[in-house]
Amino acid sequence: MLYPQPQVLTPTRTDVLVLTPWLAPIVWEGTFNIHILNEEFRLRNATVGLTVFALKKYVAFLKLFLETAEQHFMAGHRVTYYVFTDRPADVPHVPLAPGRRLEVLEVPASKRWQDVSMRRMEMIGRACEQRFRREVDYLVCADVDMRFADHVGVEILAPLFGTLHPGFYGAARRSFTYERRPKSRAYIPWDQGDFYYMGAFFGGSVAEVQRLTTACHRAMGEDKANGIEAVWHDESHLNRYLLDHKPTKVLSPEYMWDEQLLGRPAVMKKLRYVAVPKNHQEIRGP
Ligand code: UDP
Ligand code: GAL
Ligand code: MN
Questions:
Q1: Residue nearest to ligand 2 atom 3, measured at CA
Q2: Is the model's pLDDT at 62 over the cut of 90?
Q3: Does domain 26-164+198-206+249-276 match CATH 3.90.550.10?
């Protein structure tokens, strides 16, 4: 394989942090050669599962999510979409490239949107045990109210990865919207925290995702028993977990963007996975 030599005296990016203090790569455009990574991934004959929840009215987001994933998500690799839904008949029939398949997992809906969001941890954890560990090597866990707008490939894969929330990547930790009440199991004190991770895109090996989701589910159950709900639900617990269990890769906000809210700063060379505008009240209502 022929490719340009890495240049030890020439940093690939000088405008952003590309390595955490625990030496995990922060993935930005320009820091990786996708051809090397694809070759490595193929030699390992690995497969990826993409979990996505589309309950109640959110089934409406599936078509664009799946169509754009076919264009941009792990193109050329084997992928299984795991669609969790209470409306299996409404899952659209999107043509899939060879080596890619879609599995529908029928699950019950919760009344409150917060519970739908939080229960993802429980359902992913259970499915890891029941099938994912036999069916795929990596899991990517994604929100459905999004579309893929540019390349999202094997560069994101690692034993455990989280994604920087687009609203806080340049912010001081005191302004992170962590859970600040000590009574919650998601509590993070003001003087702690590395990054503010977004609940809408995380993943890793099946074993690590099973650990993460099971731990977050257990913590949310303890909060409930203690009469408290973390300020940003599963996202608050994800942040607590990733503080205690450092991710082995961190995805830049290229992998989680909202152009309506945040425009297009020069530092974002690519907008890869982006929010689809929604009317919160309408889509979450009865
Ligand atoms: N979700 C769902 N049905 C609902 C509410 C939420 O399927 O009625 C799922 C869906 O995958 C969604 C995720 O839970 O992307 C998180 O909720 P939402 O995207 O509304 O949260 P936000 O990103 O706005 O914080
Ligand atoms: C918002 C986002 C929420 C949550 C929150 C954290 O922008 O829509 O899902 O992540 O930030 O402060
Ligand atoms: Mn969302």
A1: 232
A2: yes
A3: yes
